[in-house]
Amino acid sequence: MTDLERELAEALRGQAREVTPNLDAAWAEQQRRQRRPAKSRRRRVAVWGAPLAAVLVVLTSVLLATQLNPAPTPPPQPAAKPGQDLVIAKPLISPPALDTSDSMALVDFTGQTDNWTSHAVVATGTAGERMFCVEALIKGVTRGGPNYGIESPSCVPLTGYPVKGAYVGKNGGPLPEGKAVFLVDRVVQSLRLYDAAGDLSQAKAVGLLGPGRLFLADVKPGSPPVRYEVNPTQAPPASR
Asked: Are 134 and 119 a contacting pair, CB within 8 Å?
């Protein structure tokens, strides 16, 4: 090949390179264009995903804190005390002469020399006041005769509603210790008693006496009733 032919061939190859596409460069550009939307989608996901992830982290932290540090349990509230306050008047011991109009035997007990019977009495005092009394007489005697000890009879005024009068027994008194007697309104059918510890005593109706119904109860010695319930609960009668 002559020098002229060589030069001509080189010129033709150079022109061919100028018009022949660079396949490697074209493939790389195509790959770059295909990857660009994916990156854009990832950027959009990142824009929305970052706040959502932060919210999830906060909620998870709150949930874990709640489980690890639960709210303190409120202290138990005291149970409501049943019934109403019971006020037992201090008895007048061995009052002046009483005009006894009605009485009922309650319990028998043994003294040092004789057997005795406790009686509930509705009486009228010297000033005309109505009184609820407890006295102890020798068994078999209903009126008069010697009384047991110096505290027989013991009386309280008839007041209040529905409990009109009450007496809690004691050693040396006209009613033995561990017993209590109540005169309540006649509409009361049952009487429940509670001491300061909330222990219940169920009183037993023993009959009608004067203006009320008489109940006798076993109570804890040294722990007198301080609250009561009646059933049915009655409202105080309207004043006239």
From this structure: yes
